[in-house]
């Protein structure tokens, strides 16, 4: 560490950090309200604006997380190895959440396909081979 701060300097730093977090949060809220059309501007027809809004919210949220971890949790003052041992599992957690959302969406689409197949008219001609019988000796174990 470069040097110890006085109590007053530490309090000033805390208030600066709180003001920074409050301003970033207010910007996030304003961007969210804009994206939902609550500020009188309808942007629902402009996909590229909605993508920018989403990316902006992600970047601001990541900045707040970075600031909280590095300033208030004092990760800035730790050795690099310890900081990485905290940050890398966090990245794996983010990856896992994205993977679970992807898997859930895939499951939902397949489930919708199954429901569509179950709602087929029973009187409609079937493309399956009705009356097909598996030969009796198919599952017999032949020794020697």
Question: How would you describe this structure in keywords?
Answer:
single chain, 144 residues, mainly alpha, 2 domains, 66% helix
Number of DSSP helical runs = 3
List the helices and strands in order.
HHH
Q: Which structural class best describes the helix and strand composition?
A: mainly alpha
CA distance, first residue to last residue: 79 Å
Which residues sit in consecutive blocks of at least 5 with pLDDT less than 50?
none
E-strand count: 0
Give Rg in angstroms: 29 Å
Helix fraction bin: 55-70%
Morphology call: flat
State which percent range the strand residues make up.
Answer: under 5%
Mean pLDDT: 84
Count of domain modules:
2
- Largest sheet features: none
Write up what this structure looks like.
By secondary structure, the chain is an all-alpha fold. The chain has two domains: 1-77; 79-111. It is built from three helices and no strands. It has helices spanning 7-36, 47-72, 80-118. Helix 1 runs antiparallel to helix 2 (47-72). The termini are far apart.
Briefly characterize the structure.
By secondary structure, the chain is mainly alpha-helical.
């Amino acid at each position: 560490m470069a040097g110890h701060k006085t109590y007053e300097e530490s309090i000033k730093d805390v208030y600066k950090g709180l003001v920074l977090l409050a301003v970033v949060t207010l910007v996030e809220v304003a961007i969210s309200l804009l994206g939902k059309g609550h500020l009188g501007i309808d942007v629902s027809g402009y996909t590229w604006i909605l993508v920018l809004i989403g990316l902006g919210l992600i970047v601001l949220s990541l900045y707040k997380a970075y600031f909280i971890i590095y300033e208030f949790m004092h990760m800035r003052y730790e050795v690099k190895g310890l900081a990485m041992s905290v940050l890398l599992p966090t990245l794996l957690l983010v990856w896992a959440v994205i993977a679970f959302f992807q898997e859930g969406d895939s499951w939902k689409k397949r489930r919708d396909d199954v429901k569509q197949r179950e709602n087929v008219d029973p009187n409609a001609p079937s493309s399956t081979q009705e009356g097909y019988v598996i030969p009796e000796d198919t599952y017999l174990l032949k020794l020697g």
